[in-house]
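Notebook entry, structure prediction.
Reason for the run: the old model in the group folder had no record of what sequence produced it. Starting over properly, with the input documented here first.
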Amino acid sequence: MVAELIVIVFIGTFLLAAVAVIVAAFVRDRMSDSAVVAGNEVGEVGAEQSAILREESLSTITIWRAFLQRLDLIDKLKLRMDEANLRWSVGRVTAAMLLLACLLAALVKDTTLLPPGSTLAAFLFGAWLPYWLILLKRQQRIEKFEAQFPDALSSLARMMRAGHPLGSAFEVLGAELTAPLGTEFRRMAEERRLGSPLDQVMNSFSERVKVDEVRLFVAAAMLQARSGGRLTEVLERLAETLRENAALRGEVRAISAQGRMTGMVLTLLPMGIAILLYLTAPEFISVLLFHPNGKYLIWAGIGCVVTGHLVIQRIVKVRV
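New structure, fully documented this time:
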């Protein structure tokens, strides 16, 4: 009864918060209609300045923002969100983490099949889910970036060989390339247009995209800006090296596919055997389900299977 009451309270709170957000968005849209003409008169430069120089608040709720500013982990969370190019508010993400954590903890609180400590584990798992989603988006963006980067370097080298300066080449690439690389080049071109020095623009680019190839490109560009030299040859060689590295990663991934498949089969095999035993000989499985110590054996087996799967994936994962 207590768990059901907690779930109802959290669901009601979530619905009220959703209604409040919808109403606030509707009011904001109505108020912004009167400012559209004035915003259009400002021009493209003002829009770029607001997009680059805007300082986003952690949360619109004063108490929650003051609490988040005291936590050191919030900076890491905001950095991961920036690397994933997510425009979510830090306050909303942390509120979602807290809501999911409390909801899962309430759902498993009175479950008899779970071992002690399951409530805490469910709480931590619910809080980790939004952060895992951010890491997944970040990894997908990095993979897309790595696939686009060699061709972008080749195009950049050709434009510089044709006489385009570096800032103008950034602007052209930003207009031609798709996200995520095109977005980054457009941002670099806007920063240069607003008067930011080249080293600051390149360092910001390297901080936003945590890729080794980007660090090499930034180092080469800054070295060329300081001491001179043929940057086009460096970019062409770097692009060729990146293509060879991508081909090598694909070959290694193809070779290790058998190991990954073996790990997946070994992970699913115990669950398949348990299902077959339950269908053919339920009296054997009923001992684990109804014996007082059966749940501990079940969760110990699940823990061993998960640990074995992680070990196998760690073995077959080869970094190039």
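Summary: The chain has three domains: 2-140, 142-254, 256-316.
The old model has been moved to the deprecated folder.
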